[in-house]
Amino acid sequence: FEGSVGGGTISGSARLNVGERAFEGDVTANHIDMAQAMRGVFESGALDGSGTFGLPLGAAGKASSPRLAGNFAVRRGILGGIDMGSMLKDTGRGGSTNFASLEGEVAMADGEVQLRQLRLGAGALSARGNVDMAKDRSLHGRIELDIGTATVRRRGALELSGSFAEPYAQNAVWTRR
User: pTM of this prediction?
Assistant: First the structure.
């Protein structure tokens, strides 16, 4: 299969696993415009990724909860709703974070999404962490930030909560080196 999404392409292969009563396959995404694909979360960025999926077939052949597991990378983007750089001073909502790269692993099952081993690179700012989104689209996660210049380096952690549409971050302990 092949199709267009957000100005890019999604392609892959699917097969029917009769014994498991499911469609299974591989999927690849190339150059997906994240501002189109995830409005409100990304202001810009191009996604590439790959993974595997499963779509169990329930009673009467109806599809039930899909599963997805894979890796992704978003290049040259803007993450909306949170300004990680300003979290040094304050907590809250709003702003945006420009980044060169955002990479990680994604797993989706039973309507819940897990983002693991997230790595964001944005010049002097780098971040690592994990984020979960529940079925009700509420967020929970922890992001460790490292902001450094030639003379000062600060590290800290953000506790992420709120909703997918309106994330909220609160800073935890900051250390200065």
Answer: 0.86
